[in-house]
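Hi everyone, sorry if this is the wrong subforum. Our group has a chain we'd like a structural model of before ordering constructs, and none of us has done structure prediction before. Sequence below.
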Amino acid sequence: LAPAAAARLSDVPRPRVYVGNLDACVGEQEILMIFSEFGTVTGIDMPREGLPPQPKGFCFVEYAEQRMADRAIGALGDFVLGGRRLRVGQPAAQRRTPA
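Answer:
Right subforum, don't worry. Here is the predicted structure as tokens:
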């Protein structure tokens, strides 16, 4: 298996980036194009709800390595997509607490 596929099949938590304030017209392809500039994207989780399913306005981008996620978070803090300033950061469950 390729490293990205092997990581997805294991129980090892993968580095994720929270992306909020997404316009409803933004799709996974646009997210992939933007976030793949910072490393290997191994998955995008874009929750939807309703009938027909509509995006909830946020997603999670999964990377092969933490340094890739960190680079994306650092670079895209003021990024505007679809007329909206994205909120980019670590997911709440993954935030590191200072020792």
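For your construct planning: Strands lie at 16-20, 41-45, 48-49, 54-55, 58-63, 80-81, 84-85, 87-89. DSSP finds three helices and eight strands in the chain.
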